[in-house]
Design a protein that fits this description.
The protein is 33% helix and 18% strand. The strands form 3 sheets. The chain has a 6-stranded antiparallel sheet with strand order 1-5-6-7-12-9, with no helix packed on it. Strands 14-15-19-18-16-21 form a 6-stranded mixed beta barrel. A 5-stranded mixed sheet has the order 3-4-8-11-10, with no helix packed on it. The model has no long low-confidence stretch (mean pLDDT 95). Strand 10 and strand 11 form a beta hairpin.
Amino acid sequence: MRLQSLELQQISIQDSFWSQHVDLVRKAIIPYQWEAMNDRIPDAESSHCLENFKIAAGRKKGEFYGAVFQDTDAAKWLEAVGFTLNCYPDPELEKTADEVIDLIAEAQWEDGYLNTYFTIKEPEGRWKNLCEGHELYTAGHMMEAAVAYYRGTGKRKFLDCMCRFADLICDTFGFEEGKIHGYPGHEEVEIGLIKLYQATGNKKYLDQAKYFVDARGVGENYFLQEFARPDYKRIFPEFADYTPAYSQSHLPVRQQTTAEGHAVRAVYLYCAMADLAEAYQDQELLRACETLWENMTQKRMYITGGIGSSGILERFTVDYDLPNEYNYSESCASIGLALFGLRMNQITRESRYIDVAERALYNTVLAGIALDGKSFFYVNPLEVWPPACMDGTSKKHVKAVRQKWFGVACCPPNIARTLASLGQYIYGVDSEQNQIFVNLFVSNETKVLVKDGEVSLKLSTRFPWENQFVLEVAGVPEKGAEIFLRIPDYAREYQVLCPGMETEQTEKGYCRVFMKKDGEIRVSFQAPPRYLYANPQVRADSGKAAIMRGPLVYCLEEADNGDNLPAIFADTEKPLTEEESDLLGGIVKVKGKGRRISGDSWKGGLYSEEKPLVEEVEFTAVPYYCWNNRGEGEMLVWLKEWNG
């Protein structure tokens, strides 16, 4: 049986680390993004998202503006609102969201179709450009939002609208005669259909998701057939050099062994593959998921949990190609990676999948948003020299400061919905077996329904600054309950103290505690700051070391260490030390020893035979997620190693 996440309203998060980020969603991010969607952020790129809906609904006259998938700004905002209302009822916010849903319903066609780009700009182009048109991608985000809003409020209007849209999609696409035998250029509708099935019980939505996965890459490539049509209209000029691997349609999904193409497309596809593998007990599909996971996380993932290294087309390249200063690592891609990891954990009950999901959440995902919730990174490099981030260069996509908004703004609302739904990652539950899995170390209180009763849990911790937590368990059934405590990959000297209870470490990365009565479990482990090295095949990191403390990747910033950070060499033979600080909301800084090439002593011109002088230095590292919260400056994750 697959593990289940708890409903968000079951979990009350009161955590010294995560609350400052999660609470931002309702206090800052949702209001800010509402202003952005209404084009009321000074000096920010226009969204026009809601204006597009008003035009499509006939409330206003005008032209479509924005990306072909601009509707998804509203979808992901509504999804974040739904998750938030699930935990924190807010009549005013709900009223605003209802008005947006009314607008969306007005823009929907009688047959269920919904897409403002094609409604306003190209009504004759429906379903004629699946490769570039993003109709199904947009539909998927709308479906996810509708389910979240239904679960958060109990209101069905949005859900019913999306069921009508899903019915149209089921009638339009399939292997049957007379249907379109295509599939989405940007995967996402598969996830939306699966969630609609889970919310409504209508199995045809699950079957439709299966069709889209099963059809992908089979036979003559559908997108190449589209391109060959005389009436084909190109949307993205860069697709002139399109190859099927970009959209993971180069092979049937069960035959794919390497993570290819656009990283966000890929992980959204893999999420659906995992869900379908479990739903249909398709072991071949599950093996494909495991193979793709291994390739992606062991050969194509950054230490921060970033994926998609190329700034051209936001894609995977080849194994071990992980450049630091011009990589892409889109925030949305890491969100998809975390979602994929959560699904694989629920299916296999292996903690290693949560290890990666946790890495992505604590590093790349959090780095995508400022500590005040009002500016964002789309791209997440591991080295930044601000003057070199110029238009017309290989670093033109790299931003040295977070942006107020983006013309293509998929990442900000995606981060919002992720933080709002953090609770889904904390526990996994097998109610039939009275089993509860503790995955993330986040202070919370919850009640978990299992077959033989209701178990109350209270987890208290100051993780990641302190590596210990206490889990109070009450309401243990007479037959007992099994608590599985994740042993993270960075933990050393992992200890569990629960007198009178049976404990054992499992092969899947958990410590199993069998409880026959109420009690308290105390867990502690060592996770000091440490140097990590990359596989020698990662050319960009040869002779370098990075710093991690628990799940947190650390970086050097100009604010602490001055400019020209690559001139600093780490002496990895000397220990790293910790220092608690009130800086950046209260963090643990890491101090290291090393050498620094002195620029002041340089007497030559551009090049010289004379060696530069080197001086001893102590450097300061801060968590990667909070870089660029003190103004523009250099940043560096991988330090050269001193071998003098």
